[in-house]
Amino acid sequence: MSKSRPVVKIGIDFDGVLAYNPFRIIRAPITYVKRRFFGIRKLRFYVPNTPFERFVWALLHESSVLPARGIRLLPELAARPDVKLYLVTARFGYLQPSLYRWLDRHGVRDLFADILINRRDEQPHEHKLQTINRLGLNYYIEDNWDIVEYLQGRTDTRVMWIYNIADRHYGYPDKYPFLEAALGEVRHNLPERK
Ligand SMILES: [Mg+2]
After folding, report:
1. Which InterPro entries would you find in this protein's record (predicted)?
2. Whether this model's pTM surpasses 0.85
3. What is the C-alpha separation between 103 and 86, in angstroms, rounded?
4. Which helix (H) or strand (E) holds 108?
5. Average pLDDT of the segment spanning 19-43
6. Residue 114 Cα, ligand 1 centroid: separation in angstroms?
7. Total structural domains in the chain?
8. pLDDT tens for residues 80-104?
9. Distance 99 CA to ligand 1 centre (A)
């Protein structure tokens, strides 16, 4: 393989993309009602501040995540010299230990060229926009519709959306039911290996 072949950079969100959160099923109908009947959209995200809020937030994130369908495709992609994987999460800095524990438990931490967490506790959509543009990602896989919508027109990165039952009817052309389908599309577009 030629050394000059450009590297394809793939960014993957953590919560809802790499890690599947069963609470999403419970939350989904509430989100649906808020949007459908009240037109509520949130782009301000909750930032836990007090020690107690942070404790509860950390507990929710610690207990709620299973590996998403498609995680098995990561080793194969990471092994390619023309692919780099990045984990881009808006998880706040103090959640890093539990994030790393999860990645180690599932044997995927070393597959990422870099892991970008939200060290300065910025708003998630701003953190993600800055990060994907700074890295110059070719693809970014994200599950939060509000963030996908926010990124439109603000980046050259191809934003692939993982939808859920509440918002699957949105007419976004680049949408997938889970990580496996999105990575399958990415892999399909990679150059043939010699
Ligand atoms: Mg997410």
Report:
1. HAD-like_sf
2. no
3. 13
4. none
5. 62
6. 17
7. 1
8. 999 999 999 998 877 788 899 999 9
9. 13
Query: The tokens of 123 are what?
Result: 């708003």
Tokens of 36: 């459908």
Distance 59 CA to ligand 1 centre (A): 17
Asked if residue 63 is part of any domain, the answer here is yes
62-80: pLDDT as tens digits: 655 789 999 999 999 999 9
Residue 155 belongs to a domain: yes
Please give the mean pLDDT across all residues of the chain: 86
> Cα–Cα distances in Å, from 144 out to 57, 80, 112, 117?
18, 28, 21, 16
Question: Which residue shows structure tokens 């931490």?
Answer: 109
- Yes or no: say if 107 and 74 are a contact pair by the CB < 8 Å rule: no
129 inside domain: yes
Q: Is residue 3 part of a domain?
A: no
pLDDT of residue 192: 81
Q: How far is the CA of 70 from the centre of ligand 1 (A)?
A: 15
Residue 161 C-alpha to ligand 1 middle, in angstroms?
A: 10
Q: Compute, in angstroms, the gap from residue 52 CA to the centroid of ligand 1.
A: 23
What is the Cα–Cα distance from 129 to 124, expressed in whole angstroms?
9
Distance CA 130, CA 59 (A): 28
Structure tokens given for 182: 């999105």
- pLDDT-derived band at 59, boundaries 50, 70, 90: low
CATH code for position 27: 3.40.50.1000
Using CA atoms, how far apart are residues 117 and 139, in angstroms rounded to an integer?
A: 18
Domain that holds residue 157: 8-189
